[in-house]
């Protein structure tokens, strides 16, 4: 059976909100967003984590993940440890959200935890490329 995140093409299980992302489509899911394809879903994850850094001053993966997967609905500290173990990205060191070498493994690990299967490297790469194209010179959603 396919996970909810993959059915919605939302590998990060980003909740519905007033924020609209590129590639977002009308969702039939009452709680989570849906995207045209997985690459747009990964792009949205990169955008969201970048926003955490810029607007909320969150500098480490651990800080970002405490907001992304709050304790009211997750085992947050276990989530952080799992992302660190899978990605190899140190949870408590400053993170550069514009660095593919840090962000692609981080987002891939988050997707694996959210969906129970390894992320498709091609989809993650396409999501990163779309994000990088938009955020190297502007702040498009």
Overall description:
The chain has 141 residues and is mostly helical. It has one domain (4-135). Helices cover 52% and strands 3% of the residues. The chain is built from 6 helices and 2 strands. The chain has helices spanning 4-7, 38-56, 61-68, 76-87, 100-115, 121-135; strands at 24-25, 34-35. Strands 1-2 form a two-stranded antiparallel sheet. It is globular, with a radius of gyration of 14 Å. It starts with a helix and ends in a 6-residue tail after the last helix. The mean pLDDT is 95.
Structure described in brief:
With about 140 residues, the protein is mainly alpha-helical.
Layout of secondary structure:
Elements: H1 4-7, E1 24-25, E2 34-35, H2 38-56, H3 61-68, H4 76-87, H5 100-115, H6 121-135
Antiparallel strand pairs: 1-2
Structural class: mainly alpha
Q: Beta-strand percentage?
A: under 5%
Residues in helix, %: 40-55%
Query: What is the CA-based Rg, rounded?
Result: 14 Å
Q: Which strands sit side by side, in order, in the main sheet?
A: 1-2
Mean pLDDT: 95
Count of distinct strands: 2
The sequence of SSEs as H and E is: HEEHHHHH
Number of helices: 6
What is the general shape? globular
Largest sheet: 2 strands, antiparallel
Uncertain residue ranges: none
- Please give the alpha-carbon distance between the first and last residues: 31 Å
Overall tally of domains? 1
């Amino acid at each position: 059976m396919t996970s909810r995140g993959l059915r919605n093409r939302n590998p990060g299980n980003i909740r519905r909100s007033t924020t609209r992302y590129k590639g977002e489509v009308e969702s039939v899911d009452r709680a989570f967003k849906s995207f045209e394809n997985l690459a747009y879903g990964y792009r949205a994850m990169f955008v969201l984590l970048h926003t955490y850094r810029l607007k909320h001053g969150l500098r480490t993966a651990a800080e970002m993940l405490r907001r992304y997967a709050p304790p009211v609905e997750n085992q947050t500290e276990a989530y952080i440890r799992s992302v660190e173990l899978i990605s190899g990205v140190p949870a408590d060191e400053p993170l550069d959200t514009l660095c593919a070498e840090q962000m692609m493994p981080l987002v891939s690990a988050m997707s694996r935890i959210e969906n129970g299967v390894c992320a498709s490297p091609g989809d993650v790469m396409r999501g990163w490329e779309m994000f990088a194209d938009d955020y190297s010179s502007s702040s498009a959603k």
